[in-house]
């Protein structure tokens, strides 16, 4: 039984390692926002400690069904109050380490979901 599509239609994360993330075979060495529908932009934060409520307000302005937040080398959670803009728009946010977030993003994007990954690359 074939479980994967013959062709991956969405933008995909093709590699991840210390200090880099590859999106469609292009390496990036900074935190990123990646969307299944083609969004690719630098996310202006280098460390978890640099995050502010404005980072999550930026995510709330995006068109997404769910946001996967890669919190760096380990799983860390933003303060719940910072997620209010997302909750007001009924946008889901899942938090995990960045490596897991890359894999999860690819699965959801491959299913045709409107997913965005906000990935901290420390």
TrEMBL record:
<dbReference type="InterPro" id="IPR036748">
    <property type="entry name" value="MTH938-like_sf"/>
</dbReference>
<dbReference type="InterPro" id="IPR007523">
    <property type="entry name" value="NDUFAF3/AAMDC"/>
</dbReference>
<dbReference type="Pfam" id="PF04430">
    <property type="entry name" value="DUF498"/>
</dbReference>
<protein>
    <submittedName>
        <fullName>Mth938-like domain-containing protein</fullName>
    </submittedName>
</protein>
């Amino acid at each position: 039984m074939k479980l994967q599509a013959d062709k991956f239609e969405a933008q995909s994360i093709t590699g991840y390692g210390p200090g880099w993330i590859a999106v469609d075979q292009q390496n990036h060495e900074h935190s990123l926002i990646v969307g299944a529908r083609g969004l690719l932009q630098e996310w202006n934060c280098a460390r978890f400690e640099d995050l502010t409520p404005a980072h999550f307000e930026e995510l709330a302005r995006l068109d997404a069904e769910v946001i996967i937040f890669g919190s760096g080398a380990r799983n860390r959670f933003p303060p719940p109050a910072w997620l209010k803009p997302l909750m007001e728009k009924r946008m889901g946010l899942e938090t995990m380490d960045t490596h897991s977030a890359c894999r999860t993003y690819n699965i959801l994007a491959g299913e045709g979901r409107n997913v965005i990954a906000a990935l901290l690359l420390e």
